[in-house]
């Protein structure tokens, strides 16, 4: 009887490991499975593999190793290892990801080497408790948003976090809507700070006709941005026409052409900015 021993596998950045299962039919394993795990992240990853044939395990000294009933133990969020790609062929082998650990410096995160989330109107780089595990339980995360000319950060709010925005470069326009109809609209330039309280509806956009806008955002939550973001597009998508009509005091026909089932995109692109005026600075936040 084969003794199966849990094994910890270290996968270095930009490294792929492969495995081949080729079991004896008499033992009940009549199929072969090829497994490839690729680490596309900028940090080393540590995973735990159970039920490995100890006598067949050869570490990473060779590209292939033998294994039996491989399971990458379950438990962690799938998002934690969303950049590790697993490919199976020939047969199905149950695999779920459980644990990962930086093998370099847990306090260091190479943000500039990560892949930005790219949209028509700009890009987002982010570090949160998933991509930068040391942030877990620290109530902090950050993002760098770059907006092209005409780019808009979709109007939205965060249920769990306030945000502090530093305009790194460019010119930005902001609108903030609070309770009791309070609102504020203004232009923020490079070097300015903008604070958005938790749960407050807001947007910002590139106010320059030639230069990109770059904003550094600090959140007091470690969550992935998309897990703490409610945008205007999905909100309106789910509202019945008669509810919208009653809310705005308008005929239902006025809202019938609102698109439904749209994909929510955090960064949008305004096509025509040539003749658009910037909002006058107006502060109605204080009663």
TrEMBL record:
SMART domains: Cupin_1
One matching Pfam family: Cupin_1
Gene3D superfamilies assigned: Jelly Rolls (2.60.120.10)
InterPro entries, sorted: Cupin_1, Germin_Mn-BS, RmlC-like_jellyroll, RmlC_Cupin_sf, Seed_Storage-Functional
Superkingdom of the organism of origin: Eukaryota
PANTHER family: OS03G0336100 PROTEIN-RELATED, RMLC-LIKE CUPINS SUPERFAMILY PROTEIN
Designated name of the protein: Cupin type-1 domain-containing protein
Organism name: Adineta steineri
Lineage summary: Eukaryota, Metazoa, Spiralia, Gnathifera, Rotifera
């Amino acid at each position: 009887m084969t003794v199966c021993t849990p094994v910890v596998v270290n996968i270095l950045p930009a490294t792929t490991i492969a495995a081949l299962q080729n079991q004896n039919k008499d033992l009940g394993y009549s199929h072969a499975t090829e497994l490839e795990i690729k680490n596309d992240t900028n940090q080393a990853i540590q995973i735990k593999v159970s039920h490995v044939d100890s006598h067949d395990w050869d570490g990473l000294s060779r590209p292939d190793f033998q294994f039996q009933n491989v399971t990458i133990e379950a438990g962690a969020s799938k998002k934690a290892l969303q950049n590790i790609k697993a490919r199976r062929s020939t047969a199905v082998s149950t695999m779920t990801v459980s644990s990962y650990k930086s093998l370099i410096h847990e306090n260091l995160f190479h943000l500039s080497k990560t892949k930005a989330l790219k949209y028509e109107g700009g890009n987002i780089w982010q570090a949160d408790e998933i991509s930068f595990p040391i942030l877990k339980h620290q109530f902090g995360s950050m993002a760098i948003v770059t907006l092209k000319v005409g780019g808009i950060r979709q109007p939205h709010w965060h249920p769990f976090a306030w945000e502090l925005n530093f305009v790194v470069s460019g010119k930005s326009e902001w609108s903030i809507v609070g309770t009791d109809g309070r609102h504020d609209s203004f232009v923020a330039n490079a070097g300015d700070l903008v604070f958005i309280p938790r749960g407050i509806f807001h947007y910002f956009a590139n106010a320059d006709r030639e230069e990109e806008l770059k904003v550094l955002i600090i959140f007091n939550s470690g969550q992935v941005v998309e897990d703490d973001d409610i945008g205007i597009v999905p909100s309106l998508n789910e509202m019945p026409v008669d509810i919208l009509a009653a809310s705005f005091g308008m005929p239902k026909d006025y809202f019938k052409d609102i698109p439904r089932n749209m994909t929510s995109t955090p960064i949008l692109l305004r096509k025509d900015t040539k003749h658009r005026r910037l909002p006058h600075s107006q502060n109605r936040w204080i009663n």
